[in-house]
Amino acid sequence: QVQLQESGPGLVKPSQTLSLTCTVSGGSITTYKSYWSWIRQPPGKGLEWMGAITYSGSNVYSPSLKSRTSISRDTSKNQFTLQLSSVTPEDTALYYCARIDGSVTLWYLNVDSWGQGTQVAVSS
Predict the structure, then answer these.
(1) Do 98 and 2 contact (CB within 8 A), yes or no?
(2) Is 80 helix (H, G, I), strand (E, B) or coil?
(3) Is 110 helix (H, G, I), strand (E, B) or coil?
(4) Spatial strand order in the sheet of 79-84
(5) Interval 36-88: pLDDT, tens
(6) For residue 101, which of 6, 48, 31 has the smallest C-alpha distance?
(7) CA-to-CA distance for 99 and 88, rounded, in angstroms?
(8) Which one-letter DSSP state was computed for residue 2?
(9) Looking at the DSSP assignment, which residues form a beta bridge with residue 41?
(10) Contact at 8 Å (CB) between 16 and 124?
């Protein structure tokens, strides 16, 4: 029943900040006791959980991306936003927003809703 949709620029220049927004419908980001997450998949590689914001507004980030990642929310719009700073071509990926219904330690097993994904290229 929960639907998610990513939006944002498909091209970002190196050293700039990547910003994507996830719009949630069919459920409130403040009602579900969930981790509203960002997940990405570089070309030819596996899925990487990046971080999340909880229903209460707390953040959890992947240690490898914590220094560059910020996830915020706009409860009035039922949206949450990813900001990834100082991007390089290694950040080129298909970016998903998703709901994790459980511990992020086992995030892949606990994903119950995905957006369709949006491709972001980091290139000059």
Answers:
(1) no
(2) strand
(3) helix
(4) 3-7, 18-25, 79-84, 69-74
(5) 999 999 999 999 999 999 999 999 999 999 999 999 999 999 999 999 999 99
(6) 31
(7) 27
(8) -
(9) 94
(10) no
